[in-house]
Amino acid sequence: MNILADTVHENAAQKTETVLGADELVINMGPQHPSTHGVLRVKLKLDGERVVGSECVIGYVHRGVEKIAENRTYQQFAPYVDRMDYVSAVSNGLGYCEAVEKLLVVEAPPRARVIRTILAELQRIASHLLWLGTHALDIGTLTPLFYCMREREEILKIFEKYCGARLTTHAFRIGGLQYEAYDILEKDVERFCNSFEGRIQQYSDLLTSNSIWIGRTRNVGLLNSADCIALGASGPILRASGVKWDLRKSMPYAAYDQYKFEISVGMRGDTYDRYMVRLEEMRQSRLICLQAIENIPAGPIMARVGRVLKPPAGEVYHAIEGPKGILGYYIVSDGSIQPYRIRIRPPSFINLQALDKTIRGHLVTDVVAIIGTLDIVLGEVDR
Amino acid sequence: MSPTLHSIVAFVQAWWVELLCALLIVLVVPLIAGYIVLVERKVMADMQARLGPMRVGPHGLLQPIADALKLLIKEDLIPDNADQFIFWLAPVLSMTAALTSMGAVAFGPWFQVARDINIGLLFVVGVSALGPLGIVLGGWASNNHYSIIGALRSTAQLISYETTAGFALVSGFLLAGTLKVRTIVENQRNDHAWYIFLAPVGFFIYLIASIAETNRAPFDLPEAESELVAGYMTEYSGFRWSLYFLAEYANMIVVASVGTTLFLGGWLRPFPNVHWLGWLDAAPALLFAAVGAYCVFRAGKQPARVQSLFMWALAFACFVVAAIFALASPFSHLPLEKMHDGLYGAFWFLLKDSAYIYIFMWLRFTLPRFRFDQLMRLGWHILVPLALINVVDVSIALALSSEFGVNRWLAMVVTTAATLGAAMLLVRWNDKYSAAASAALLTDSSVAENSHAG
Which residues of A lie inside 8 Å of B (Cβ-Cβ)? Predict the structure, then answer.
């Protein structure tokens, strides 16, 4: 019966293809493709080289993270969130820990909050660096990738010194931190920030005023603010369209209310604006780090949460501004030691919905630029 | 002796020098191409704050040989749905075109396969234009969407930029007054100027067009790896793939040689007619001696004995070459002096060639890739008209200096300024047009979207 159904389905598909006309070409971009950033598969319908339609096929790395949560205790689930957006594990952990803390009605001590902020901002820089390198690679320039990796390496070294892991860090614990900051954390961060200022200028010199770069990114992948809001896009994509919305300012968490920084916004909402916004965000993150290391309060790093976490029955939603956009955790508790349900609002998944809208009418070449500028991580899209 | 055998012997007797040179090209060019790849990887590594190949041999010096070996012993794979014969033929065609066109290039006064044919550079340009045929056929025969898109892009790109390169070369031919390779170089000596100084715009147009012709970044759209996986080469692997690869690098050598011959004075020493710069003749020997000394310096620092031995051998080879150059120099007054022209000519020619190829690499690692419409617009809206204007302006300069007795340099400066002015106008006009075009594109797409929604 199933086989029959499949055949009927296939026939229908073939029929639609013949209706589409001989001029149109359907190519599968991915799941194995150099620039779909993982295992994204985009079925592109092309007229010559021009995209007339597209369909995203996702789920190749679906691991059922949300379902796994229902069979783990609150602490046990924390390492799993690192593996969603595996290039910004610290931010994922921060969001999760704060969400559970909200559910438990505890607050991490000030010292823990400041250290969390520093690491989360470093993670934002690392994530943006990886984005910049791969985005530039997609657009055809090889060199920035290696420079970006060099800087990212320094950040990963700081993470390694802090918690022993580089990528999936599991740096924070519910209620605060497990590890005290190591002796020269401030110095390491300061050294990184000092060198980073000049380095980011180098990338800017390579790309910002390069006419090929401008040609490839200006007016490519336009998304106006209304579209962004309708699609639920967030993070740099939303800000590049001119919407000044950053949870670090509008709903401060961790220790962001103590620091001065600017929200960078774009005007047109094209790929170039998103590039400029992310570049500026890296500069601002650097400033936040510098402010934070100046004054790390003394005191405990862990709130009193007890060994077994048993939050009261109820539900909570907590969102943070991750490097890629708004990362939200919606947790339902039935009063047991395991969450009843966790729903994660992943920025990559929602930002990816903008793909079809933005690539229509562009050329195949622009598709990779737009996938790059959406800054997706398939681990997070599929979860 | 049978008549067939007799005619073969007669043929070999008449053409043995050329046959030897041809054999040399077939044997040596792949090796040189391999080492250009190594140099490219090293240059890339240097620009990207890393080391590049370091494992195979000291400083990765044996990497090309290892790569070639790997490619040779790979499985020979032809996709079932491919057109078997054309799939087989296509890379051979590309490679043949590249190697054949090398025949008319002279690498110094002594090293040339074809006798100095009177259509010289025209032959080179014509035969190397056959290369794209291999690319198109390969992309078509692969029966793969990425390949066919790559092949189509390649066709359009190569046709456009062959035109541009042709017009740019014409400005050089006008100055040289001939297509014969040797005469072109000799004329540059007699004119007391490399033609890059008399037709600078022509040279730069040719430089850009030659990068596009060899499918190198920022014009590497036919094989744009981040978009089309590997473009026309997607289905090729192993030795067939390496044929395409060799063809690309052989083509690089060809276009660099054409550029060098026509614009950079071929095998002439810089300032060949200036006597007090005669010490430049010592440069080859000194250069090789310096490289040898560096090898000696590095030999002690190699981690393995075998590697340090290799370095010593390399140093020895460098010193031998340096000694040959020194003995053949005009200062030595030895019988080797007869070899001066050939050796020194080859040295200067290859040095200029390398500089030219280095520019290719430098641009590749610095610039993002063009989009297809931008590439076409650059070609047809800016470079082709500019090349035409340049031809006219160079002709005017020539007429002014020969017919009206205006100073040659003055005429050159005036006409070049006129060409550059035209270039600025073209760029401005193109900017205006491209803004309008992209606006049209977006309105089109929104219309399509609305109809889709409706």
Answer: 25, 27, 33-35, 49, 52-53, 136-143, 145-147, 150, 206-207, 210, 212-213, 215-216, 219, 222, 357, 360-368
**Cβ contact, residue pair A27, B224, below 8 Å:** no
Contact A365 B224 (CB under 8 A): yes
pLDDT above 70 for B437: no
Which tokens sit at A285? Answer: 């993150």
Range of the domain at A22: 2-57
- The domain total for chain B is 2
The answer to whether B7 faces chain A, any CB pair under 8 Å, is: no
User: Are residue A77 and residue A94 in the same domain, yes or no?
Assistant: yes
Which pLDDT belongs to residue B149? Answer: 80
Cβ partners under 8 Å of residue B221, min gap 6: A365, B153, B154, B157, B215, B231, B369, B370, B372, B375
Between residues B333 and B343, the one the model is more confident about: B343
Of B256, B246, B263, give the one whose Cα is nearest residue B213: B256
Domain-terminating residue out of B31, B64, B97? B64
Q: Cα angle vertex A205, ends B386, A120, to 5°?
A: 145
Among the candidates A14, A35, A57, a domain finishes at: A57
Q: Does B51 touch chain A (CB under 8 A)?
A: no
Residue A62 has pLDDT above 80, yes or no: yes
Closest CA to B198 of B348, B360, B419: B419
Distance CA A27, CA B143 (A): 13
